[in-house]
């Protein structure tokens, strides 16, 4: 299906700073305790919580990475030519356990041996690796894939798949939203000629394409395949009437009349707010009739990574406090697309966005973690700086985020997993969830959920794994959460001390009984295809935006007197 036509040396559209933070997670969870690789040859070794460490200063001069040829992408991480990958191996060796030693010999020992097939530190020594080989086979293939992908992204080769993204869609050619492959093909992505390229591109396009897939009338979610519910049809019909031509009409027969912009609210936004704007502009090419105003809102939104000079530009507005009463900026990318970042908890500025209109307003939250334990630490961090954050400070924090929904989930809780290694260490920077912890739907998300449900506009979510999805769904419905490990698998998504809920949570006032499903929970064809591997247990892998679902505030229709109870 894919073409392998390559264009010549057109200017690269992605620069390393622009793609520093290709992925996002929603602020409300943020168990980021990790160093996150980025889609960039620039090597990042920053931790979110580490941003308060003195040592956490940006590297100023990066060594030019050696060029790796395409047949030389596999290296054991601990011997990688790239320091970031070596450091990753070091962290795995210091926080994970040898599974064979632990499960068969009841020894808690760190892995010191690199599997020769995948290059990840997996076992205590060669003997234990041999012993656990059968079990490891299950994970070895994907670890090898990630190993090569990580070396490829840093190899210094021209990343043609990130360049020359198609813009205008020829009028006569419809886009297929069935999968990444068919979308790339029908959209004429010219430089995607391998599965690896598809994985790289899916990782940065998953945010705009997830939105496009949900909103487009030819998208993968329909009432025919059961994903759009009966109630959801009303919401989607309203949105489609603004996004698309009426049935049977053509551009020639429809009078040109300005339609209101579609407003997309991305809550708990982090790195998606620093995606290069041209990636968001893909939405304009997919919906050629529509103007979009995209709002990134949350305590962790990225404020622009630009210098003072660029800030002076006319099309670029930055305000410390003005306008929204919170640090913010607006970029008018073109006449049809504006991007606004507002660094504030959503509930603080909800009223400023009103009135709301279910025809033109749509909410998204990428991996909100509704069913994930609330983390007071996060609140401390995000609220501590409130009202005092200067631009430069904001910028500095943003640089250090480099975060990603699934990546952070995969890497969360890495260090300090084993407290006994240093019993005297104070672990106050560890996002430790006591057993009685509330889930985030009851805490950070409670008010925004209430506010958004009251607008009757649709609110869509993603999740990074089947368990993550089930956990979020159960939190809002007040039903039993999934058990912590997949059926038949000894592998747990999070360490035991992450107190995931084990029973239904209490109903949440204004939420639990106040919504209807619009989009049933299930797989998202536009999730990232890249595995994100957990450092605390490399057997754990998740994918950004793996699943998606959506809800809307209940509509109480006017009923006849005799129908009233
Ligand atoms: Zn292996």
UniProtKB/TrEMBL annotation:
Region of interest: Disordered: 399-432
Domain Mitochondrial splicing suppressor 51 zinc-finger: 97-153
Annotated organism of origin: Kwoniella dendrophila CBS 6074
Name of this protein: Mitochondrial splicing suppressor
InterPro entries, A to Z: Mss51-like_C, Mss51_Znf
Mitochondrial splicing suppressor 51-like C-terminal domain: residues covered: 208-375, 440-533
Pfam family, one: MSS51_C
